[in-house]
Specification:
It is a single chain. The strands form 4 sheets. Strands 1, 2, 6, 7, 8, 9 and 18 form a 7-stranded mixed β-sheet that branches. A 6-stranded antiparallel barrel has the order 11-14-13-12-15-16. A 3-stranded antiparallel β-sheet has the order 3-5-4. It has helices spanning 14-22, 37-41, 55-58, 66-75, 78-87, 107-115, 168-174, 230-236, 254-258, 266-274, 278-284, 298-309, 365-385, and strands at 4-10, 26-29, 50-51, 92-94, 99-102, 121-122, 127-133, 136-141, 144-153, 180-186, 190-192, 203-211, 214-222, 226-228, 243-248, 311-316, 326-331, 349-351. A hairpin with a 4-residue loop joins strand 4 (92-94) and strand 5 (99-102). It is of the alpha+beta class. The protein has 13 helices and 18 strands. It binds flavin-adenine dinucleotide (FAD). Flavin-adenine dinucleotide is lined by residues 10-16, 29-32, 37-39, 41-43, 48, 126-127, 154-156, 160, 163-165, 168-169, 325-326, 353-355, 364-367, 370.
Length: 386
Amino acid sequence: MKTYYTAVVIGGGASGLYFSHLMKDCLLIEKKTGCASKLLMTGGGECNFTHDDDAAEMVRHYYERKAFVSPAIYSHDSHAIRSHFEELGVPSFTREDGKVFPLSRDAHSVAYALINNTRNIITACRVTGVRKENGIFITQSTKGEFTSKYLVIAAGGASCPATGSDGDGYALASSFGHHIITPGPGLCRIKLVNNIPGCEGITLENVSFHLAGKTFEGPLLFTDNGISGPAVMNASRYVENKDEITICFHPLEENAVKRLEGRKKAVNALSAYTHLPDRFLRNLLPFLGDKNIADMNRQDIRETVQRLSAFRSSCTTQGEMKRATVTHGGVDTKEVDRKTFQSLLCDNLHLIGEVLDVDGECGGYNLSFAFASAFCAFSVISEKES
Ligand SMILES: Cc1cc2nc3c(=O)[nH]c(=O)nc-3n(C[C@H](O)[C@H](O)[C@H](O)COP(=O)(O)OP(=O)(O)OC[C@H]3O[C@@H](n4cnc5c(N)ncnc54)[C@H](O)[C@@H]3O)c2cc1C
């Protein structure tokens, strides 16, 4: 096996594979026994690999990194990603909500399309160190040393570490002087310190909540000790430990409660009025028991209104990194060129995908960025080499 390549790529995930299947003289090094562990889990195994948006709409889904991701998303937008997979034999379809999946509804088809078109892959090989000497990168690994003109760090973030992306990429980038913005879990559930027991499994269709100075809206799903759902997941990155969340399950005023039919059971009357499920209301408002509306005292009414329209709890995402969908934080984007993904600290070093301090919302935006950043790095390297 040869040991010198034009490019060495660290990480056989979404971004590393996308880069490597395009690049001719390149070695992809993957720590796990197979590539694409995380990619295979995406979209519940069906792989929501992009979103049916034009570039201008796409960039709106990357929180405070809109400006950074913009050139990449414009140069390789969701249409380009879809056509590229189509050429690789992976046609796709758009779901009603705009999420794009392979027609096979199987992430394996996306992963294999990339793996089968990648020339040189070593698996079960962990990169342990990298350095640059006389303009050449030396990559040390558990299977020996490899040298290259370009080095691409595509080692992912730190969320869901069982898939192989466990923060190694940060240490490798740091060895070239890069700064790491503290990583935290993103697109995960939020645990409520003041949990409402007995609600697990209940979904509420349209709830709004206030967290970290922002308001979010959408369906809300109760989990064993917290809440989930698309809006919750999109908001989870803002949770600092023990932040306060205020949830409005249904806007309600004291007068509206007083006007309800007095002989009816309070829980049933409230359920009919708010369209919230009985089981949820019984757990949220246990003090109502079997009381009729007419029997509710002033404290009952006040407490009911407060819990329904402004339920407060401390919340946390502590411990969620092990199953979070994405990492927020990572290599500081101020140190990376946003058109080429070349390091501004080290020539010919490129950083792509989730190792960077970029995270997107639910809906295919994280894979889109992994692919678009890989495409940009490939384009500039292949242009220099042509
Ligand atoms: C359960 C789940 C569902 C998801 N669903 C979606 C979805 O539907 N749509 C979407 O857009 N995004 C989704 N994501 C997010 C998406 O999968 C990631 O953003 C994307 O995979 C990031 O790609 P990446 O190449 O940067 O990193 P990764 O895909 O994490 O790949 C990094 C690779 O580098 C390897 N590596 C790390 N360190 C080393 C080392 N020292 N030596 C060698 N190899 C190393 C790792 O083993 C890993 O294979 C999901 C994530 C999870 C966890």
